[in-house]
Amino acid sequence: MTKTANILHFDPKGPNGLEEWEQMDYASLVSGEPVQRGHLYHEIEDQGYMVGVWDCTAFTEQMAPYTVDEYMLFLEGELTMVLPDGAEIEIKAGDAFVIPKGFECQWKQTGFVHKIFMILDGDVPQAENASLRRITVPDLAGPSGADVSTTRTDFLNAAGNMRVEVQTHGAVAQTQRTSAAHELITVLEGSLQLFDGESPHVFERGDTAYLHQGDTAGWNTAAGTRLIVASYNSGG
Question: Which residues form the (S)-ureidoglycine aminohydrolase cupin domain (predicted)?
């Protein structure tokens, strides 16, 4: 059979461990001398796009506009996002959240954190939707045993090319499904099988898959499968 897709399994520790990344400018921080490590699974440098895994020791940033659109799924640790009015949003392991580019906030972590991420550092056109005025924390709970497919969009960036959805699927078998965008897919409940023309790739609860835009893959889900999907349409 001909291979039709490049299906990636996101290992939270990277394929060969995480590499230490460039040191942050400690002088620009409120506190901390963080050590950050990571691995990029896919990058489109000229579009400011990247997906990967990252971990870091404690630090607190200044209150400032966030410099990118970023989707994150926390694997370990805790984080407090502080808003200009003093309100705080608590993030813990197992939570997903999205910060829109230009949103003023302060990152405050008191210990080690580990996350999966999708970042887009693109132009910010004039746009208006509710998810541009908040830090979005999707509700990842849902009914079990669903036999229908539904999609709820929780975040859409200003350019309309990056979104985060929570999907529920029944028992579905698709012999061919072409990805309309680069897709970062984490299984919240149930199971997902992707077929690349050579062999099945099985993703269970807590596993994360990645499909490149234009990939064609078989797609099977068990009844009651829930997914959180962050996607980026790079055009073309």
Answer: 51-117, 172-224
